[in-house]
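re: ur question from yesterday

yeah so i grabbed the chain u mentioned. its 435 aa long if i counted rite. heres the sequnce exactly as i have it in my notes:
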Amino acid sequence: MNSDNQLQTICHRLTRFSSVAVVCLLSTGFMTSHSFAADNNLQNISWRSLANQAVELRLQTTMEAPEPLSFTIDKPARISIDLDGTSVGDVERRQEFNSGPVRSLFVAEAGERTRIVLNLDTLVPHSMSTEGNDVIIVVGAEQVDQATTFDVADDGFASEQSTTVAARVRGIDQIDFRRGDNGSGRVIVDLTDPKTVVDIRQEGPQVIAEFKSTTINDDFLRRLDVTDFATPVNTIDTTREGNDISMVITAGDDYEQVAYQSDDVFTIEIKPYVATAEELLEAEREKKQYTGQKLSLNFQDIETRAVLQLLADVSGLNIVVSDTVVGNVTLRLQNVPWDQALDIVLKTKGLAMRQHENVVIVAPAVELANQEREELQALQQIEELAPLRSEFIQVNYAKAADLANLISQGADSTLLSDRGSVSVDDRTNTLLVQD
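ran it thru and got these structure tokens back, copy pasting raw so excuse formatting
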């Protein structure tokens, strides 16, 4: 896949919406790209402490700094920053920091890309920007306040005016609740803007979702009692907190929550954490089990092929994507196994996959169905054109004619193919079978 435009789109989105972490497991290989000249070198790494235990790192290059692409891993807590078209200059490959959440830093180079890996005590939000020859990375709490206060304009600069516009146009159209498979409860929120920033946290029996700079009709500012749906969710309280909308979902003691977004529909799913033996057996038969490492993704209007390429890095599988896979998708997935994330992308875009050992083929579902039908037709034609084989069978202690009737009598009970036949030599009590 051509990744130049895809990586630039991803980098722009990550810089624009850095208040929500993009979490995924990285494979050791890097995606190849040729967006920048290979003679751009990383020549210096500096850092300083900020307020609220935040840390600012500056990555200085010899030429204009490329747009960074970042990924994060939950366990162990790491932030990986990729600099496209950049090689490692005279910098230490491993540095100890022990400042704020950052413990150490490791630099590696592969192809025409440099990767900087930050080892953390615990996973925290981060933001990235470029300034001349510098890539600026803020790790910790300080950048969260900036992200919730300002929106980023197309020229890359935050402005108070852009925040006012975002608060005016971003809103909630509808709040719905549905009972999902295996007794899960789904809170479905229709957004007017798929770029709405949503922060989710779990506090005991409550899941709190904050929709930043978002408007809502006063009719939705109320409590929904959904106990009759027989799910872990009891109530949903929606309130206005300044320019934000707060949604508090109260569930039982034992549950797990998954949040994901497809275009302008944001879904929070609350699942029972402990199930009875009968429910587990039923789930084993009816529901696909996802075993991949959990990750989080936040992409706005990203090409579908780019998402598949990222999931290929996460899973370690070889993914072959058909040329007919086109279009963009908006995703916000939190704490979701990578194989479930792949299924969500495929279902959203009407795609399907076929796996042969560690190679996965992805194409539109109709295209794969047509290919398989053509393969079956080809096998059938080969079978019809295969040469017939003749066999003489000497029958003892029975009449050959009676056995011939048993073999060929009736369309439902015949043992022969459409091209097969059986004949009898009464003189020698022999069957001649051709098939």
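noticed a couple things. DSSP finds eight helices and 30 strands in the chain. also The helical segments are 4-16, 142-149, 160-169, 277-286, 304-315, 338-348, 365-385, 400-408.
anyway ttyl
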